Amino acid sequence: MCKNWLALALILAIAPATWAQDVKETGKIAIGKHLVDLKLGMLYQFEVEGKGFQPDVFIDRQFKGGNFAGGTNKFSFIPSEAKKHIVIVLPNPFNLDKAEGPLDYTLRMQSIELGAPVLDEAGATTMNDPVVMNTQRRYREYKLNMIAGKTYVIDQFIDKTVANNSFDPYLYLQDGGGKILQSNDDGAGYPNARIVFTPTKTEEYSILASGLFGTGAFKLTVRGTK
Fold this sequence. Notes:
This protein is mainly β. It has one helix spanning 2-14, and strands spanning 32-38, 42-50, 55-59, 63-65, 67-69, 72-77, 83-91, 105-124, 139-146, 152-158, 169-174, 180-184, 193-197, 203-211, 217-225. The protein has a 7-stranded antiparallel beta sheet with strand order 5-6-2-8-15-10-13, with no helix packed on it. A 4-stranded antiparallel beta sheet has the order 1-7-3-4, with no helix packed on it. The longest helix has 13 residues, at 2-14. The chain is globular. The chain starts with a helix and ends with a strand.
């Protein structure tokens, strides 16, 4: 056996390097860039529909939308500054259908004025908390009466004031009967979660603040539209 391995090593040492070749190619692809004037106290709902590709969207190079439905990227954004924000549209790197050339897409934006928070809590999940059905996600439950026809924005942010907190928030919303109506992972920009909900009936709803993996500290805020 040793002789066979030695012979193979000698063959590899003297054989020409024909298995790998250097490759140099060039390509060109356009990206979309938009300047949008956003105001404080507003929720902006974006929808970017790509034609022939799956669009990724960045705002000010920091926020990334990522709730895909087919070739459409839907997400919401609440600005922390009143200014012109840069919105960038480019192909998702895992979307192999788009090779090169200009991007064909439609960007839509809707603004909603927000009121003062109706819930503003700091919390943390632990291994003693219950788990969401059919998952291993521990959660803290917050109950809130919501009015039919009014839109609510539920935000769960990682608590950056807690040291070594690598929590990845994950939100659930249940109706009064315990049925899960919505869930969200990165709707407020990774790793933060956001649910935008307009109830069809007035009742007490349950917000389940959990995490994608493990436990950790978070901040939960709920705001209704004016």
